[in-house]
Design goal:
The complex is a heterodimer of chains A (610) and B (192). By secondary structure, chain A is an alpha+beta fold. Helices cover 16% and strands 43% of the residues of chain A. Chain A contains five helices and 42 strands. The radius of gyration of chain A is 28 Å and the shape is globular. Chain A starts with a helix and ends in a 5-residue tail after the last strand. The longest helix of chain B has 38 residues. Chain B starts with a helix and ends with a helix. The chains are: A alpha+beta (610), B mainly alpha (192).
Chain lengths: 610, 192
């Protein structure tokens, strides 16, 4: 044992005396090679320490995060106030605030009020009287606790003012019943805050997501006001949908009855009649009230495929639906089930209760299907022969649900790299041999959806995000498989993608984002072609064959059809009451198929485009 | 506290009435705090919390207590205790500077390892595999000592009690075992 080793080993287990420390320092300074055993022993010590039972830091980490976020909000508000006072001067009338600042100021103010509300709620609302209860819930329904964490909220739990409640995940859903008989249906990923103290009674502030409200006429009780940061809805007897997807705007769709709307931005009131919708922004201009489009509620056909998640038309004569464990083929136009293909597996569980309808897919020609199991195996099925063709073992568990895309002819299958320890990539495998064909680098580790164009040329999306800058807009990358290079499209704001669809000719790419917008890019011209302000999150998209109209399904089981050139909403279809998992439009453009959560596959006739 | 009463307090402390020292701490803590904490952030580093400064202030009073018999009655006690505080700060600075030099070597070594993500990941995996294999070859007593030291974070004395041995014997076992592991891992990594 050398002297350096002796001193280093001693150092690892007990404090060294001053002369020993001096000696060690001297020895280390003599020669680089002398330092090697010292460093090797430190490496060993670090590796052995790493073997110790992991510490539990969840609570402290979450508490720290909460404090950091609160601090950021506070600093943001102070910065805004400072900016305003500096701009306006103390004695002069306030200068006009630039439009882009207005919503930020309003949002900051709302955040401050919300923070104050939370504080006030913490200190005053303990034991507050119940204002209602949770009538129904599925998926994750949570309430914000005093400690700043979200905890599960059960069916039957009383609702109290000051509570912040959210649904989390695409299959989450809840119905809140208030004492004045108001019913509030929360769609997935919705956050509301219950407040009291308004002149009329309770107030529910929808901070994000989509709610459907049913407010019966009641003389005895003051009625619940449902609001967004931009508007307050004071209902009589009414049924309406209120949505918030971004700090800039909120949208009210009035389905029945009549309501008085008060804009929180400028304090004005206006009335909205049934069959109308209005989008309120932070700009204090007059809101435009428009008629709701035609609503279809009776489908042409219902196909009762249990838990179907994905659907597609195969030419003009057949269609297929995919559930977690089964594939159904039906013939068109009679809707007869031609055959069912159950996926049987020896090991692992197929992702069934998934947000995106299961990890799997079917090629556009309907001849190849793929499902993946949580033990890290992709099963490729020959649909024509109705048998498993090949299994692809990824040699790593699939820790979470991942999207999958199959080539139009079923020759390859693509999936994001499942191993979080590997660099993010999209991996492609041959579906005949199971051999890996390529691994396309993807800058973002989270890829929520994956789609291939009908000609098999483009694969999208692969997001790129500036490292460590959460608020920075990401770049949308579309991989050109023919040229083996990515096309990149810079976004104007930080948001995340939820659904993508290629136009039938492969030239347009429609994307649905969490900021309530649909962005359509022209891949040939490489530019943003259309931006639709749909004011809600769409879970699936499909183009009409001519590429001029786009259909999208929301979290309330509705499918909407827009004219891309005008942005006009032309048609609305009620395909269910929960998340619309998938939709497809037939190649002749006359039929639309949709499937919503816990609802049958429905086939609808589509009117011809104008 | 007047100077007269300070002399009395010191007399009492030196006479064995140790709790009387609390009066001195209470009266002079502000002066000591100024010496230590005034510059703490500048020399300890911005990432250090103020609890370290408090530790140091406490240590200054421990030093003062242990050397109270060296105080010359009638001289400025404030100056005396401030000298002790400066000595303690000086000592701490020297220790940290030396440690920083030594750690700089290891930090650079770590940075070299972490410079390439792919290489670092591969090396970590190879190192972990080598460590696991080499640990399998250890004698039961050595493996037990290592386990108690690292997985259970016991002191040498606690390990000695568990193994029915002495702390010195445990120290020797650990030193020998770690040297063996180091050599074994180096050989394994060289082969891969």
């Amino acid at each position: 044992m050398t002297r350096i080793e002796e001193l280093t080993l001693k150092l690892l287990h007990e404090p060294l005396a001053e002369p020993e420390l001096d000696e060690l320092e001297r020895l280390l300074a003599q020669d680089d090679s002398d330092a090697r055993p010292h460093l090797a022993l430190l490496d060993l010590d670090a590796a052995l320490r790493a073997e110790r039972q992991p510490i539990e830091v969840t609570e402290s980490a979450v508490a720290r995060l909460t404090a950091t976020l609160a601090d950021r909000v506070q600093r943001g508000v102070v910065a805004e106030i400072t900016a305003i006072t500096q701009q306006s001067g103390w004695h002069r009338p306030p200068l006009p605030v630039p439009p882009h600042r207005r919503w930020r100021i309003a949002f900051m103010t709302a955040a401050l009020l919300l923070a104050l509300g939370v504080w006030y709620g913490k200190h005053t609302d303990r034991g507050a009287a119940s204002v209602g209860h949770v009538e129904q819930a599925s998926g994750a329904l949570e309430v914000l606790t005093d400690s700043g964490r979200f905890e599960p909220l059960e069916v039957g739990a009383p609702l109290r003012s000051g509570q912040t409640i959210r649904t989390r995940g695409a299959d989450s859903h809840a119905v809140l019943q208030f004492a004045d008989a108001t019913r509030l249906e929360l769609s997935p990923d919705t956050l509301v805050r219950l407040m009291t103290g308004t002149a009329t009674g309770n107030k529910v502030l929808v901070t994000s997501g989509l709610v459907r409200a049913n407010t019966p006429s009641s003389a005895r009780h003051p009625q619940t006001v449902v609001a967004t940061p931009q508007l307050e809805v004071r209902p009589g007897e009414a049924r309406f949908v209120l949505g918030v997807t971004s700090p800039e705007s909120g949208r009210l769709d009035l389905e029945a009855g009549a309501v008085a709307v008060e804009r929180s931005v400028d304090g004005r009131r206006f009335d909205v009649a049934a069959g109308s919708y209005v989008v309120a922004t932070m700009e204090p201009s007059d809101p435009v009230i428009r008629d709701l489009p035609t609503l279809l509620v009776q489908p042409g056909r219902r196909l009762d495929f249990q838990h179907a998640r994905k659907i597609n038309f195969l030419g003009g004569h057949a269609g297929l639906a995919q559930g977690p464990n089964r594939l159904w083929f039906w013939t068109e136009p009679d809707g007869e089930v031609a055959f069912e293909l159950p996926f049987r597996r020896k090991h692992g569980s197929i992702y069934s209760q998934s947000n995106f309808g299961g990890c799997g897919g079917v090629s556009a020609d309907g001849k190849t299907a793929a499902v993946c199991t949580n033990d890290g195996v992709i099963h490729i099925w020959d649909v024509v022969r109705r048998q498993e063709r090949v299994t692809i073992d990824l040699h790593t568990p699939i820790p979470q649900l991942l999207p999958m895309a199959l080539a139009p002819d079923g020759s390859w299958v693509a999936m994001p790299e499942p191993d979080p320890n590997q660099p993010p990539a999209i991996r492609l495998w041959n579906t005949l041999s199971g051999e890996e064909l390529a691994a396309i680098p993807a800058a973002a580790s989270s890829i929520p959806c994956l789609t291939v164009s009908r000609d098999g040329r483009y694969l999208a999306p692969m997001l790129s995000k500036p490292e460590g800058r959460r608020a920075q807009p990401p770049t949308l990358l579309v991989w050109d498989l023919a040229m083996r290079q990515p096309l990149s499209f810079l976004l104007d704001r930080a948001t995340t993608v939820r659904a993508v669809a290629f136009s039938p000719d492969g030239q347009l790419l429609a994307t649905s984002w969490h900021d309530g917008k649909v962005r359509v890019w022209d891949l040939t011209a490489r530019k943003l072609q259309h931006t639709l302000e749909v004011n809600q999150l769409l879970y699936c998209l499909a183009f009409t064959p001519d590429g001029r109209r786009l259909a999208g399904g929301n979290s309330m089981g509705q499918v909407k059809l827009w004219d891309l050139a005008t942005g006009e909403e032309q048609l609305r279809i009620q395909a269910g009451s929960r998340v619309t998992w998938d939709l497809a439009i037939s190649t002749d453009g006359t039929r639309l198929a949709a499937v919503a959560h816990d609802a049958p596959v429905t086939i609808w006739g589509l009117p011809a485009g104008k | 506290m007047a100077e007269e009463s300070l002399e009395e307090v010191i007399e009492r402390v030196l006479g064995g009435e140790h709790e009387a020292f609390a009066g001195i701490v209470r009266h002079y803590q502000r002066e000591v705090w100024r010496v230590v904490a005034g510059t703490w952030k500048l020399w300890a580093g911005v990432s250090q919390g103020m609890s370290g400064a408090e530790d140091l202030v406490q240590q200054v009073f421990v030093d003062a207590f242990l050397h109270l018999d060296q105080y010359q009655p009638g001289t400025d006690f404030t100056a005396w205790i401030k000298t002790i505080a400066r000595n303690r700060v000086r000592q701490q600075l020297r220790a940290w500077t030396r440690e920083n030099r030594r750690l700089a070597l290891y930090r650079q070594h770590l940075l070299d390892h972490l410079s390439d993500d792919t290489v670092a990941a591969r090396r970590e995996e190879a190192y972990r595999e080598a460590l696991t294999d080499c640990c399998r070859k250890l004698a039961p007593q050595a493996a037990a000592a290592l386990d108690l030291r690292y997985r259970h974070a016991l002191t040498l004395e606690e390990i000695a009690v568990r193994l029915g041995s002495t702390a010195e014997a445990v120290r020797k076992v650990l030193h020998r075992t770690q040297l063996l592991l180091k050599d074994c891992i180096e050989t394994r990594l060289a082969q891969t």
